[in-house]
Amino acid sequence: xxxxxxxxxxxxxCMTVFGGCGAKPxxxxxxxxxxxxxxxxxxxxQETLEKIIYVQVSGAVASPGVYELPEGxxxxxxxxxxxxxxxxxxxGQMNQAKPxxxxxxxxVRSQGEAEAxxxxxxxxxxxxxxxxxxxxxxxEEQLMTLPGxxxxxxxxxxxxxxxxxxFSQIEDLMEIEGIKEGVFSKIKDSIKVN
Length: 194
Known about the structure:
By secondary structure, this protein is mostly helical. It has six helices and five strands, in the order H-E-E-H-E-H-E-H-H-H-E. It has a three-stranded mixed sheet. The chain has a two-stranded parallel sheet with strand order 4-5.
């Protein structure tokens, strides 16, 4: 009988020891899963916040203002947020498929305004009456009209200008990576500096 009690006590002890060891890791695993679940939405929220841009839409649109868009949006999406273009807008004067960048301003001109502003804008923004592009005032689009200058090189020219100030001579253009003598010789007669 004593022997049976000893066996029962040993059996009870073994069940307690082995049964208790298996329960703890399950609880810890569940706690770890819960912690992982709570971290994921916060990380996703931060990623979402980092990918928002703000764009100002004005001119011939229903509701001019500043609009929040996801990064990678296009001009037409910003115009839609502003209620769409008005009947008197000159929709053909802008590239509505162009990707947007943070802080950009989109101005939709009216039909009469587009014709009157065309000559003034050309003189003010860089392309003077002589047809040459002024490196110190030209927009990205105007720079892209030059042979061999695509969007990447146009952005590089503007970035150099913002970092170093105005170009003092047209030859300064060759200081920009990707623009060497070959490209420069194609565009030297189409550019100028003031």
